[in-house]
TrEMBL record, chain B:
<keyword id="KW-0677">Repeat</keyword>
<feature type="repeat" description="WD">
    <location>
        <begin position="287"/>
        <end position="328"/>
    </location>
</feature>
<dbReference type="InterPro" id="IPR001680">
    <property type="entry name" value="WD40_rpt"/>
</dbReference>
<dbReference type="Pfam" id="PF00400">
    <property type="entry name" value="WD40"/>
</dbReference>
<protein>
    <submittedName>
        <fullName>GNB1L protein</fullName>
    </submittedName>
</protein>
<feature type="repeat" description="WD">
    <location>
        <begin position="200"/>
        <end position="241"/>
    </location>
</feature>
<dbReference type="InterPro" id="IPR015943">
    <property type="entry name" value="WD40/YVTN_repeat-like_dom_sf"/>
</dbReference>
<keyword id="KW-0853">WD repeat</keyword>
<dbReference type="InterPro" id="IPR036322">
    <property type="entry name" value="WD40_repeat_dom_sf"/>
</dbReference>
């Protein structure tokens, strides 16, 4: 574009325009010059700079009122000249500067800027901006001499006025930009760096403007939000730049105490100069503090993120440059900075983190005692206000409050101990944490949720494994907040405390709180857990590394003392349910010296039962135990393999809780076990238990000696059995013997507790050795089938005929029909049985069977216990014993013999529930001891049962709907339900079957209650299995739906009792049964017609 | 009312055989873990770590024959064990080694535990029942040279020696031997003259165990009867019956006076451990835990008195550890 490269050519081109403009100052002339400028190269223009500027300056200087448009275009034209050239003379710079400023000043020197058009203002500001950029370094510095102070002051006040009072955003921003250049803080890179002395000089100079600038800027910053974020951002930037320059610690440090005497001729000007002595800086800092406070308050919640980002920069800049001079303001500044860590905008967040990181890395806080004091003061006041804030704020507010707290702690870093060493600070902080962490303990469900499989007959092993997952913290419900983030922040607070703080001091203090009152116990435990995690550096997010990490022994020492406290009886055995058993166990007075799990002895008696334990208390206790269990998890994770040494004392209590009946506790404890496994390097809970069974067994055996601890010991054993396999048996055999011998000493009061153990022992044995019992099952059944077949005369008859036909066919020369080898199979099975029992008699009984025998022995004694629940449990255990002993007939039979009398009593004169269970036992027993039982059953039990059934039948037939709630009904039902299967199992003789059938027949009456009818039907269905023919006959005596034509005239006609009978009360049920019988028969022998 | 007796602090199990002898080694300084040695019927010597309460090593040196005496010689690295295979073994356990360095063939078939006395640095005297039925032989260890053989006078009919106790009044003075015999008598032997100084019939039955307090010049012995016998040694080296104490149940298999000479413990056939005050033989406690005969009792040698322990080994395969120092 540049056409004229040489000054001569350029001169030729520009001269006419310049001359014209000098003659007549019109818009057109200015435009012409402007157009001419465009065609001149920068180097050429540089030569002609003053020449070209002259007409423009002249135009401005012409006295009299001027057209605004003209002034504007002149100024713009000047700006374009200046943009292309450099100002190399100091005088020219000063003159231009003052002339441009004059454009904005009102003709009469009123304080307000002239009411000029916005375009003109903008043009002037931009021209000033350009001017400042076109001056060379040395030249520009000439502007910053004491002598030019009035001029500068004028410009500054003009620009400030514009930036504050103008409406147009662009003017405001340009004015601020221009000011920025004016105080030599331009963002662009063109400027030369000032050396120290120059900077000092400028600082001295600008100090005079500081009050004006800072006050005006603070007004701009806190002004209407509608002014746009850019203005605010620029204002903030300018603010911190000027403050950072004037109040720089480096500069202030070099200021002499007393004002230098300046040469006399400059004395007037020197009055304007400020001496930045200590007094001045102190008072200025105070004033700035007020301004900063206002600004920070306002802009930290500014809706636009760039403003907040700029605020972060402000804090950083001031912290870096004025950390001593502005120390009082940092309370606000740091608060804002720390608060912005959680800004919704990620850029602000990350910048904030960077700045914090920078602060920490430079050790600003660590080296600056005053700053640490400020932080600790802030911390103190925040801690004081925390409970109130937590009460009143919403979750978002709580998050920001807590992140503030966390930020303070992080910033303090290793200096945290200053805070902790002050009792008042520590006290406040603790109190605040205690109150904030208060749990909500109103949920009743936690108390109600019971563990499954505890009372059930068979603990499903699959679901037990399912429960053992990686231990996660149970979700807690807090009184003062619901947001998960709040809890995470609190966690971080505690961890950071643990990370930097003096662990002994903290642990000691919180242990004090823990034992001080029940109110704080849960919270204190929670805090302790997190402290330890933090001390070990687990899951803690900090700004700077601590100087020394605590050694393992210290950590272990603290952990051991906390663990001791947690597992202390008073804190471990809390009332968590109001079960009769549990309350019973608690009411047992603690006798004498008590053995703590794992050895540490203490003589604290168990907490005496409070008269009214509310759901709230129990909930609270449950949570406390859970938190303590989580603590154990955490300690294990911290210590890793080192924790193995602590298993001696820690494993037993955890297993105890894993067997707890409250769901939450047992689940937490299982999680803890999983965590311990992981920490100590065990593959599974089973490995953990097996490898440490010696510790557990020791605990169990010692605790069994204490009446009050027996239930716990049994829980531990129960848990061990649940979570392990047969390999555990040799390890615990010893202690099971202990259990049995302890049981022998206290049948009366502890029976139910021990039965639970026996039950779990037997369940485990069945589970571990069940397969061998199972085989035996099948054996027995196959024999039953084969015997059943022998009794069937119809089949014999059929076979006879078939054989006959086959023989005949063979005789005739046909090949024999392959298959049908049933008959061959029967003898080997029958032979195998006696062989088996012979060898068993000689071989020593395996240990699990010995145990089963020993348990069965105890069951005999307990079968007649006064408590129904105990009896029921005993019957369950008995059944399991029988199952385990199945393969060892030689041992089972004598035991069965001994059990029999007690069992008979259960069968014939006990609660229906017990009768039912006794039947189940009998059925299990029947599989093995068929011969032994058959006779005894028909002699001892059957007559009583049948007579009872017969005598009760009329009563139940008459009875109304209420009858089903009576004991008699339940008994009838129990007997009817059990009798059928028993008859089948025992393979009863014909006469006994007839007895049974007779007794049950009346219950087929429609007059009987429906459930009894159904039960009676079930009896007959079983009888059909045993002897279908006689059942058929019996039923047909009552009712015969079909007539039977003899196949041949020579045979006598069939006459059945039921033929031709009227429809009566039995008809319905009998027809139903006959139909079932027919179906069964046709299914068994397809194609065969009923006989 | 007196406190009820405490429970064991811990029970060590896992030897799977009856325990016949126990010996503590907890006195060393430094990071060494306190250790307990136990000898059991199946011929194993178990080295228990009292920190983890677990067996560190099991030593097998007596051909699966019952081990009925274990002693340390100096530190815990040198061990002496006596078994029913008629051998006394010397072990080197330093740096994880488990080797028998030397052994003495006793040729004695009895149950008499040997007795060890340190007479100088690296020099011990050991008394043991010899091949001939009534004789006691004293050897010097580790050289195994015979010092003397103690034969009762012809016709004394003492029977086999049942228990031995070597002692000396103070370091450097003449070592003496107390021996309990099958006929119930206790004999004081002078080793240098190989001569019986005094003989006292304490029991009607064989003396099962004895211990002697050289400071008070008083000793105690137990037998299969219901009696504990306390006897004293006067200036003229004569044994005199000082007192007898009747027990409820018969049979004492071991007696140990605590190193501080304040109390003593007995291991009873009635499954109980009894604690007495040594001065007046005041019964202090009956420790009831075992379910079979208690074979041995031993006090630990911890430097810190509050850590000291009592251990008892029993036929029921368990070793019970008690902390009774704090209570007395």
């Amino acid at each position: 574009m540049a056409v004229f490269d040489t000054p001569q050519e350029a001169f030729g081109a520009l001269r006419p325009a310049c001359v014209q403009l000098t003659r007549a100052q019109t818009l057109e002339n200015v435009a012409r010059l402007q157009a001419g400028l465009a065609a001149v190269s920068a180097s050429a223009l540089q030569e002609l700079q003053e020449y070209v500027l002259f007409p423009l300056r002249f135009a401005l200087k012409v006295p009299g009122p001027k057209q605004e448009r003209l002034v504007q275009s002149v100024v713009e034209c000047m700006a374009s000249v200046l943009a292309a050239t450099c100002v190399k003379k100091q005088e020219l710079l000063q003159e231009l500067f003052s002339e441009l400023c004059a454009c904005l000043s009102p003709p009469s020197s009123t304080s307000k800027p002239a009411s000029l058009s916005e375009e003109l203002k903008l043009a002037v500001i931009q021209a000033l901006h350009t001017l400042m950029h076109s001056a060379y370094g040395d030249v520009i510095l000439s502007l910053y001499q004491p002598s030019t102070l009035p001029l500068l002051g004028f410009a500054v006040s003009l620009l400030l006025g514009l930036s504050e009072q103008e409406k147009a955003k662009q003017i405001k921003i340009s004015a601020l930009k221009c000011l920025q250049v004016l105080v030599l803080q331009c963002d662009c890179q063109e400027h030369r760096q000032l050396d120290e002395d120059e900077a000092q000089q400028c600082g001295d100079l600008f100090a005079s403007f500081l009050p004006g600038i800072s006050i005006t800027l603070s007004r701009v910053i806190t002004g209407d939000i509608k002014q746009g974020h850019k203005t605010t951002v620029s204002a903030i930037r300018l603010f911190y730049q000027i403050v950072g320059l004037v109040m720089a610690d480096e500069q202030l440090a070099r200021i002499p105490k007393n004002k230098e005497k300046l040469p006399a001729e400059r004395s007037r000007i020197s009055e304007l100069m400020v001496h930045r002595g200590p007094d001045w800086s102190r008072s200025t800092a105070e004033k700035l503090c007020l301004l900063l406070h206002k600004m920070v308050e306002f802009s930290s919640v500014h809706p636009h993120w760039k403003v907040r980002l700029e605020l972060v920069e402000l804090v950083q800049h001031l912290l870096r440059n004025c950390s001593q001079s502005l120390v009082d303001s940092f309370s606000h500044l740091l608060k804002a900075l720390v608060g912005l860590v959680n800004d919704e905008n990620s850029e602000v967040q990350s910048r904030c983190n960077e700045v914090l990181q920078g602060i920490a890395e430079q050790g600003l806080v660590a080296q600056n005692r005053a700053l640490a004091d400020i932080l600790s003061e802030n911390l103190h006041s925040l801690a004081t206000a925390l409970p109130r804030l937590m009460n009143s704020q919403d979750d978002m507010g709580k998050v920001s409050t807590l992140s503030l707290l966390l930020g303070y702690l992080k910033l303090l870093g290793p200096k945290i101990n200053i805070v902790l060493n002050s009792t008042s600070h520590l006290h406040r902080l603790c109190r605040a944490l205690m109150q904030v962490l208060e749990l909500d303990v109103t949920d009743v469900k936690i108390v109600e949720d019971r563990r499954w499989g505890c009372e059930g007959t068979c603990g499903p092993s699959g679901s037990v494994q399912h429960g053992v997952q990686k231990g996660r913290c149970q979700k807690k419900y807090f009184r003062f907040f619901t947001e998960e983030k709040v809890f995470q922040l609190l966690q971080q607070v505690c961890r950071v405390l643990g990370y930097y703080g003096n662990l002994y001091l903290l642990v000691d203090h919180f242990m004090g709180l823990y034992s001080e009152s029940g109110m704080y116990r849960k919270q204190a435990a929670m805090v302790l857990n997190e402290l330890i995690a933090g001390a070990a550096g687990v899951g803690v997010d900090v700004l700077q590394e601590r100087e020394t990490s605590p050694n393992m022994d210290d950590l272990k020492g603290s952990i051991v003392s906390i663990l001791d406290e947690y597992t202390d009886q008073a804190n471990w055995y809390l009332i968590t349910s109001i079960d009769t058993e549990v309350s019973h166990e608690h009411s047992v007075p603690c006798s004498g010296l008590t053995a703590c799990p794992g050895g540490a002895c203490s003589s604290v008696p168990l907490p005496s039962p409070e008269p009214h334990v509310t759901a709230r208390t129990m909930n609270s206790n449950i949570w406390q135990i859970c938190i303590q269990l989580e603590g154990v998890s955490c300690f294990a994770a911290v210590l890793g393999k080192e924790f193995r040494l602590l298993l001696l004392s820690a494993l037993y209590p955890v297993l105890e809780k894993a067997g707890d009946k409250t769901l939450l506790i047992s689940e937490t404890a299982l999680g803890t076990l999983a965590d311990i496994c992981e920490a100590c390097g065990y593959n599974s809970v089973q490995c953990l238990i097996n490898d440490n069974s010696d510790y557990l067994v020791n605990g169990i055996s010692l605790n069994l000696r204490q009446l009050a601890h027996q239930p716990h010991a049994s829980q531990v054993l129960d848990t061990m059995l649940r979570h392990s396999d047969a390999s555990l048996l040799p390890l615990v055999e010893d202690v099971i013997q202990d259990v049995l011998s302890t049981l022998d000493q206290s049948y009366s009061n502890q029976a139910s507790t021990f039965l639970r153990v026996l039950h779990s022992v037997m369940t485990a044995l069945v589970r571990w050795f069940g397969s061998s019992c199972g085989e035996e099952h099948q054996h027995g059944q196959s024999r039953a089938v084969s015997q059943g077949q022998q009794a069937v005369t119809r089949q014999e008859l059929e076979k006879f005929f078939l054989d006959y036909i086959r023989q005949k066919q063979i005789a005739e020369g046909n090949l024999p029909d392959p298959g049908d080898e049933e008959t061959d199979e029967v003898p080997p099975v029958a032979k195998l049985e006696p062989n088996n029992s012979d060898t068993e008699g000689e071989a020593p009984l395996p240990s699990h069977a010995q145990l089963a025998k020993a348990v069965m022995e105890r069951c005999i004694h307990l079968l007649s216990d006064g408590d129904l629940r105990v009896r029921l449990k005993v019957l369950d255990v008995l059944e399991l014993c029988v199952t385990v002993l199945h393969p060892h007939g030689n041992h089972l039979l004598p035991m069965a013999h001994r059990v029999w009398p007690a069992l008979v009593t259960r069968l014939i004169s006990d609660d229906p529930l017990a009768v039912l269970r006794a039947f189940k036992v009998l059925c299990t027993l029947a599989q093995k001891c068929r011969d032994f039982l058959r006779q005894r059953f028909s002699k001892d039990v059957l007559p009583k049962l049948t007579s009872c059934l017969l005598s009760q039948a009329p009563a139940s037939a008459r009875a109304g709907p209420v009858y089903s709630h009576t004991l008699a009904f339940k008994l009838q039902l129990a007997v009817l339900q059990g009798l059928g299967s028993l008859c089948e199992k025992l393979d009863m003789g014909e006469s006994d079957l007839n007895k049974v059938a007779d007794a049950c027949l009346i219950y087929l009456s429609a007059k009987q209650p429906m459930r009894l009818q159904e039960a009676a039907q079930s009896v007959f269905l079983h009888l059909m299995h045993v002897d279908p023919d006689s059942t058929w006959l019996l039923l047909n005596k009552l009712c015969c739906p079909h007539g039977y034509e003899p196949p041949h005239a020579s045979l006598r006609p069939v006459k059945l009792g039921g033929m031709g009978r009227q429809r009566d009360e039995f008809t319905h049920n009998v027809l139903l049964l006959l139909e079932r019988l027919r179906q069964r028969e046709s299914a068994a022998t397809p194609g065969a017609a009923p006989p | 009312m007196a406190l009820p007796p405490p429970d064991p602090q811990f029970v060590l199990r896992g030897t799977s055989a009856a325990i016949h002898t126990l010996h503590f080694s907890c006195g060393s300084q430094g990071p060494d873990v306190p250790t307990l040695f136990s000898g059991s019927e199946n011929g194993f010597i178990h080295v228990w770590n009292l920190k983890t309460h677990r067996v560190d090593t099991a030593l097998d040196g007596h051909g699966r024959k019952s081990v009925y005496c274990v002693e340390t010689m100096g530190g815990k690295d040198r061990l002496l064990s006596q078994g029913r295979d008629q051998r006394i073994c010397l072990w080197d356990l330093a740096e994880g080694r488990t080797s028998v360095t030397d052994s003495v063939f006793t040729e004695n078939v009895g149950f008499c535990r040997c007795s060890l006395l340190k007479v100088a640095q690296g020099r011990w005297l050991m008394a043991m029942a010899a091949k001939a039925l009534e004789e006691v032989q004293v050897l010097e260890l580790p050289s195994k040279t015979s010092v003397c053989t103690l034969k009762p006078e012809v016709g004394a009919k003492l029977g086999m020696p049942m228990c031995l106790k070597l002692w000396q009044l103070n370091c450097g003075s003449q070592p003496l031997l107390l021996a309990g015999y099958e006929d119930g008598s206790v004999v004081l032997w002078n080793l240098s003259m190989a001569k019986a100084l005094s003989q006292l019939v304490c029991h009607q039955e064989p003396v099962m165990s004895l211990d002697f307090d050289s400071e008070k010049a008083k000793g105690i012995s137990g037998s299969s009867e219901k009696v504990l016998s306390i006897w004293s040694l006067n200036e003229q080296q004569n044994l005199q019956v000082y007192k007898t104490h009747r027990l409820v149940n018969a049979g004492i298999s071991d007696i140990t006076i605590r190193p501080d000479k304040k109390i003593l413990a007995t291991a009873g056939w009635d499954h109980r451990i009894r604690i007495f005050g040594w001065k007046k033989l005041k019964p202090l406690a009956v420790l009831d835990y075992h379910t079979a005969t208690v074979h041995c009792v031993s006090f630990s040698d911890h430097r810190n008195p509050s850590e000291r322990l009592l251990a008892a080994g029993s036929k029921d395969h368990r070793i019970s550890i008690w902390s009774i120092y704090t209570q007395t």
